[in-house]
## 1
Amino acid sequence: MMSSLALINEFLGQPPNASEHGYQIDHILEFAHWFMGALFVGWSAFFVFVLIRFRRSRHPKADHTGVRSGISTHLEFSVVLIEAVLLIGFAIPLWAKRVNEFPPAQDTILVHAVGQQFNWNFHLPGPDGQFGRRDVSLVSNSNPLGLDPNDPAGKDDIVTLGELHVPVDRPVIVELSSKDVIHNFCLPHMRIAADAIPGSLIPMWFKPIKEGTYEIVCGQLCGLGHYGMKGTLVVDPPDKYQDWLKERAELAGTQNAPPSTQRPAGEPSVGPTPGTVPPPGAPKTENPAAKPEQKPAQPAPTPSGE
Ligand SMILES: [Cu+2]
């Protein structure tokens, strides 16, 4: 079904869909692009026609009556009708389903995702199924989520940095929050994204239907290191997911959290970056991460054909 439709989507670089509802998003995107393409061609042709038809040499004086035929009215009306059907018939119901019809709790995986400059932290409840208490005042480098060490529910909690595993064919609810600025938890392959806003807990859900390793990106320009704010979503078969849970739970027993400073070489360190939001009137600071490479001087091009 997808392969016959995915033309513009593929052309625009949309990665293959891996979620249950994704094909509906793809259909609307595909149709809207074709429709806008047709309108663009139509309006452009009309514009050129009008330029020629009503040129000055043929119409030295303005015609105050204007168009007499009803064709433009009919055309306009059909465009409005198609747009209304697209919005009321497809877009709004799909959106309503995403925000109102959350899957029943007993069948879902519930995860907390916490954005920070410039990484995604994940918090899983561990074997007891209970999330431990979190407190901003307890946040430190070794405790990136501020887990309360005195809360028994938090003892077996799993905290990971940048990597989240979920089992295939089960709905996942991600509750989003942020430690610093507004981020956006975006899963292009799952066709879903939602803002992570400090002080709010925002739920979103999807159901992965294809195993694989997918990219998690930040969809809001959140600072100098925004480009590097990437994570990995691994959709595992159920048994492999259990293995991962077990492994992470064992790790959680020995160390509270992975070090929050593990970053690929050359990328900015985790934590608020001083100077991300310079005070008004401050001199512009150079972005150390985006320094242009020193290139050797190019030899001047010599005219060919000696
Ligand atoms: Cu971000």
Note: The pocket of copper (II) ion is lined by residues 115, 183, 218, 220, 222, 226, 229 (CB under 6 Å).
## 2
Amino acid sequence: MSGAVGVRPQVRRPGLGRVLVVIPTYNEADNVSPIVARVRAAAPDVDVLIADDNSPDGTGAIADALAATDARVRVLHRPGKQGLGAAYLAGFGWARERGYDAVVEMDADGSHAPEDLPRLLAAAGDADVVIGSRWCRGAKVVDWPLRRLLLSRCGNLYARVALGMPVADATGGYRVYRLAALDAVDLGSVCSQGYSFQVELSRLAHRAGARIVEVPITFAERERGASKMSPVIVAEALWRISVWAVQDRRAAWRRVVHGARGGQARWP
Ligand SMILES: Nc1nc2c(ncn2[C@@H]2O[C@H](COP(=O)(O)OP(=O)(O)OP(=O)(O)O)[C@@H](O)[C@H]2O)c(=O)[nH]1
Ligand SMILES: [Mg+2]
């Protein structure tokens, strides 16, 4: 970890507390400075943690330079590429250790507009989890190729039906979590490496009774750098959603069977 500059007054948002924006990075050298500048301009009272997986393109060093000039920016250096989910879990742990009340998930590539952040934080006043949603009324997706649109639409439809979650954008990665709500979730059980992490956390939060709210965002295709999306990541998401769906149905069936047996036992 690096980046200790000057005195940094702690700012508590009314109704939310101290907020940390976690930005995972892997080879985002061209994106990390602009995204941090945009976050700082859009929400000057929040802190930023860049969770870099030892990017070969030098993103970590650029992040260090940002942290050296801005006391609200910190860097978590991780030894190597371990996936988005692992980077976020490390960021959540970092936030918890330092007494933050809420964490924001945001991509580094500009797809998640920092200018939408104030609306997400405002919505978190009445929610445990806020999802910046691409698939609710008022949302916009800009410049995405048809195959990505279809993948996201179909993936979300599958997650929603298979898992019975009332969430339109369960794969979306622009979120606010209250850390107190995450206390009710066994983060140690999270097994996703790639983007199924977002679905897994949605599912666990929903099962834990979290108040989940979706706020429309304008989502844009990344402007610079290369996507880390791969067929392996898509396959992992499909596979895990299917496994969770089977597990949920088995559990529901067991409840029905045990409930019926319990009912019979009460009769003479
Ligand atoms: N620390 C870390 N960050 C990662 C890893 N994989 C992806 N990221 C970051 O996670 C964010 C999302 O990754 P993207 O490649 O933009 O994935 P995506 O948004 O689904 O795909 P595109 O829309 O094609 O860009 C970016 O900030 C990446 O740099 C990883 O293994 N470790
Ligand atoms: Mg992206």
Note: The chain has eight helices and nine strands.
